[in-house]
Amino acid sequence: MNENLQKAILLGNEAIVQGALQAGVQFVATYPGTPASEIGNEFAKIAKNNNQLYFEFSTNEKLAIEAVIGASFSGLRCLCAMKNFGVNVASDSLLPFLYTGSKGPTVLVVADDPSCHSSAQSEENSRGFAQLAHIPVLEPSDSQECSDFIKLGFEISEKFSLPVMVRLTTRVAHQRAVVDLGKLTPGSDLGAAKFVSNKHQFVTMPPRVLEMHQELLDKIEKIKEYAEKSQVNQLSGANNKIGIIASGVGYLHVKEAMENLQLDLPILKLGFFYPLAEEKIKNFIKPLKKVLIVEELDPYLEREIKCLAKEVNPRLEIFGKNILPEVGELKPEQIVIALAGITGKKAPVAPTNFKTIKHSPRFCTTPMCPYWRVFAAIKKAAPEGTIFGGDIGCYMIAGFSPMQVYDYMFCMGSSIGIGHGIAKAVAGKQKVITLMGDGTFFHSGMPALLNAVYNQSNILAIIVDNRITAMTGHQLNPGMGENIESGTVPEVKIEQIVASLGVKTENLKVIDPVDDFDGFVTTIQEFYPKNEISVIVARRMCALLEKRKK
Amino acid sequence: MNKTKNFNIVILGVGGQGLMTLLRVLSEAAFNAGLDVKTSELHGLSQRGGSVSVYIRFGDKVWSPLVPQGQADLIIALEQQEALNGLYFANKETVFLVNQYETPTMAQTANQVEIEIELRKVTEKVNFLAASEICQKELANEVVSGTYLLGYALNNGYLPLKKENIIEAIKKTMSEKYQELNIKALDLK
After folding, report:
1. A239 and A222, same structural domain?
2. Can you tell me the distance from the alpha carbon of B45 to that of A78, in angstroms, rounded to the nearest whole number?
3. pLDDT tens across B95-124, in order?
4. With contacts defined as CB-CB under 8 Å, which chain B residues touch A360?
5. Whole-angstrom Cα distance, residue B149 to residue A133?
6. Chain B interface disruption, residue of A1, A7, A9, most B CBs within 10 A
7. Which domain holds residue A262?
8. Is the ipTM of this complex over 0.90?
9. Which of residues 94-133 of B touch A (CB under 8 A)?
10. Distance CA A87, CA A163 (A)
11. Interface mutation target, options A6, A144, A355, chain B, most CBs of B under 10 Å
12. Same domain for A124 and A269?
């Protein structure tokens, strides 16, 4: 029992924070997105009045990575966290960051969501960014590895002056498991940070940018040698002609499946996704007759390994996405069936034709979510045939059965951008109403609104301002008048931004959709026929937040 | 390999019923008992009133955070229709504890009789309990119905953990305001 004193049960995301603190992290910026949100929440708890740690909820992921790039150039140890789609937003600055390299060591944590438990948009696999950006990528399987791999990420970043990505999935980020707490590194005060000009390294202008490209490729070659020796590419199991190569949570399912089938096959667990330890893989597959590749979503490893096998073992039978799904997360029973098939063992047959039931997500009822009133008003006021554009936030729930309000829904900020395109295309014959939250407006709605104003479309944009970034678990945003580091800051008013972007005063109104339901209905009716862009800010605090504030 | 079989629990319900709190209590209790533990939970969109299933496994050594198909020892459904979604994890020895509480689904609904018939096709160990109603009546708070079901599982030998481990875990994971309420719910008959 005594050894339990240095251990604790931690969520994968909490272990990320634990590992980062042990690595002496000093500067953290994030934009919340499930399944990465708790990383920011945990840092927010400890950053206040802490002169060794700076933390911010940035207003989008590109700004989070840019804040971290600036802090890294100033010599601080940095961490940036986001969900998969965040990397799309951040990528414009992420790619050149690999060219310049980091000064203070920097780790980027990215959480994917196979099966889209908490995601719309796409079942994105961030591992694709490894090839695109040439960013080293580590893939932990459990909470202990979340902590260990973050520390390793800082070590690699420090050694090679490149940012490192630690890629999680839902079943890793939201897995609770036993973790060795380890020792905290005594930090140093942020006051020591200094930006030392280094134009040669921090300015990505041609022709220097091409030299930087070469420098990046040279660094990756060196990291590849490092990966070949790294303990996170780990061999286990007995000798056999059948072997397994696994990554991420898939490795845990493999161990589970082997126990289930009473098998002891050799496994190569790849903690390093990029650069790949090719020599190690070649040595592993050389004596094998069959190999099973276990990875979630796209067969990135499988494609690489097929190439390597042509060199060292052309007769190797490679199993992967031919017997395991490429869509949806992996489950242990799928690995049991796959392994049983390959080894000629009998797999337990389980019935699956059960009656099931589905509760669709819905707005809160206790306390009553103000969005119920927002959508009741829209239903009352908007004529049949109106085109509804949805966006990312709690209000997207109106897209589920039975409401099924939205006619299109993509990514953060896109309701206005796509709505503008439709409005231009249909040229006044149909009307578009878009719905976007306060957090999403600050994230990426502002440029979309500016474009719609400038290029003169006539959408009616309803900005549902519930005074917080709610869906991801109540994180602060610029509309609230507070941040983590300073406490009170000037409150940013959405209606002022909207007016500044060029929406005319007579086409702009702020209304409480609960207290002034009738006024809200009338305003939608009044704005609907306008041939210019109009905006309603439906301002009413999230009922959960209101309850908590009491 | 002298490893004993892990104990696997699946908890089902709709987002907002306190599934994550139950998982935290169970994981800390198993950890207090010196066992290896893994859970898999869901946050975000999946917590907004929709169907949610979460997992906890404990024993000598736990690999996957997911309970494999057909391998649940105990299935707790905080909403009775959700019990049907638990069948995927059930075998003929699985114990079902089902809260007689219902939130409507928009598509198809199933009543208690229909649900019970389906569950009994797989296992005889099916228990329907008026957890929400009892907690509302006795403690004026139906949110603790999950804790009540844990108490029921403990008292009937369906959960291989000690009550003191659960109480210790409640004290560790909950704010003081809720500790007493939950410990009371554990003892409700």
Report:
1. no
2. 29
3. 999 999 998 887 778 899 999 999 999 999
4. 49-50, 105-106
5. 50
6. A9
7. 233-343
8. yes
9. 103, 105-110, 118
10. 14
11. A355
12. no
